[in-house]
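Curious: why this fold?
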Amino acid sequence: MIQFLLKLLGVKIEGAQEVSAVTFQLRHSSWLGWMVFIGLLLCVFTWWVYRYMGGHKGLTAPRRRFLTALRILLFMLLLFILLRPVFSFTVENRLRRSLVVLVDKSMSMLIEDSRLDEQDIKRAAIAKGIIKTLDQSLDQQQSTGVQHLPRTEIVKSVFENKDLDLIDTLKKRYDVEYMVFDRDIRPASEEQALVKPPLGDDASEATAIGDAVRDVLNRKRGQPVAGVLLVTDGANNNGSEPLDAANAAGADHMPLYIYGVGITSPRDIIVDSVFTPDVAFINDEVPVTVRVRAQGLKGQKGHLTLKLDDKEVASKDLDFNDDGEQAVPLTFTPDKAGVFNLVANIPPRDDETVKDNNTATQRLRVIDSKIKVLFIEQAPRWEFRFVQAALMRDRRVDAKFILLQADPALSQGTDSPYLAKFPPTKEALFKYDLVVIGDVDPKVFTPEQMDGLNEFVSKFGGAVAFIAGQQYDPNAYAGTPFEKLLPVEIDPTAVHRGTIERPTSLVLTALGRTSPMLRLSPNEEENANIWHSFPPVQWINRVTRAKPGAQVLLEDGDPLKATRFGKMPALALQQYGVGQVLYFGTDNTWRWRQESGIAYYPLLWGQIVQRMALAHLLGGSKRTQLSVDKQHYATGERVTVFARLYDQAFQPVKQSSVNGSYTVQTAPGQPPSPIQRVQLRPLPDQPGMYRGDFVAVTAGNYKFSVESDAQTTLDFEVAKPRFELGETAMNELLLKEMARVSGGAFFREEDLATLTQKLSQKDERISRNIDADIWSSPFYFALVALVAIMEWVFRKRYELK
């Protein structure tokens, strides 16, 4: 109707324009009263004139009334022109924008889902065009035909589906651009993005959804973009967080319309990880935790085996009760030293979606020696007694004790763990891996002994741990060589003797939550709960702050005790020269032995001792220390290598750069790869510290060294990303949340018919008004002329002048 009216009024609009509103206006509305008055006069005049002609022989009463009406209508049309009537049309232009179709081409998209749920089978049938809605039924042959389609085939079928007609519909409204991604993002043709599947051997095992979305945002920022149509299963194992990228998309007004591919509950057993210490001791029981997940296998069973290289060392039968994760504890006792692969495996089932994720591997080094610990204490306080008991029961530890206020005869018994005095020579001292100093009066140490301990740590890679006390440690060490060793700054105003502090809880810091020596459970949440369950300590030493470069692992949870530098450090660790120094700010950890804590107390101190002593025990170079930012990497990740280097005089190296290199062994028994060079640059304000990085392209065991000390090597592992096939279910929760925070929508196959409608709700429109003057339009001129001609014709017919 509106289009017809526009044509009558001679108004033309373009095809991309739509009329959203029509209003009628009188430009000279102030004349309306006069026009009504004049119109009434003209009506009376016309009526009088035709009545005066009533005696005409050919003018009957009906004819007179008809001619009167025509004359009045003509006068009204002419008077209406004086009011300047117009139609005002509100016309909207839909801004034509681009739509980015971003398609996941990683290895997980090659998964052939085993569809057992009726809804999942129908979704595949909708993709193939067999049915249109979930309410329709399928026969047995149709169900069988779509039960094992790979995800790439589902995507291909959806975009070739004539009933959905997605691509042609989108092309009519948007400029469609195609991109594909796995670890990286790249432009693609329509065929490459929607039809052509990734080749099996060339498909990337890494998926970086967050990076792909951010790349699109960077490329399209400032351009008119309707949104991003993201086609993925939600598997993400590389790059930035997808949710962060989705939030950024929402902030840039670039909503994500996400088509989730795959099924949410495939049948699958996933051996996720093996958790065990990196170093174990020969003939010592090694605890191992294997994290296993099962999907869609409630009520089923599995058999978990643990192998040390090719030798089975433990096994356990498992019951799968739900789709959650279970931590399976195992133990074994290694009987020989060396470096081994600890392999956990559950044989795959015939009905599993993926059979390549049933194994997890962890490198384990087994050594044939004991940690040598020297514990020096003034008096047998409670902390000393319980730590001593834990060390004496630990078969990995060979501990000796100096108790200054004990009976001298205590050290004279057969096989006594007590020593009568401090080691008389540096050679005797340097045989120990860790020296623990309790609440000891610094006056009992000679200057030579203090200097010897300083040299033991700084030049020979030993470790020292200070356990604070209320009499001497650490406040009495101000101005002594021990003050340089401490990872904290002594508070000169702190006075502890005879004071009573209120109970306080020690809280893990962010670094503490990731520290292996404070991990009392392989599960991060369980570990946090264990630390939270420990009873408060009655006393904590007051210090000013941690020294620059020290790592604070535990802190006083009481905000009232915080200084201007933050909360009070309770456990701090720092590198001192080539060695390590630990500070524990309380002697009340023995209180944690209450209830369930009795099992964690020896575990905690055993891990602290092992963590501090291993570097010296393993005999690493005292002049060259190599480390990486992570112990395990996935292919494609950037490896950052740190080197702390000292010259022959144990002074920090001051070169402008250091050359390093690495080789890769891709499989046991295979020769290493050719040497790859890496250049390391010095870190500012850290003398002797260098950093370099490279991308780990190949999976395998890496061996890194620096040119100045090729004998000292750093070993670490790079594995293929496991999340691609380690998480076979579509991550529906993640994809829905990404769509929500970006302002877009999430779709399954049954929802795709509404995609264009969802997109059009966010279309940008530009409005403008078009005024069509009725009085000057061809239609109005024709109407006036028609009325005038009709009156003239009928007057002639009725023989009037």
About this structure: The longest helix spans residues 61-82.
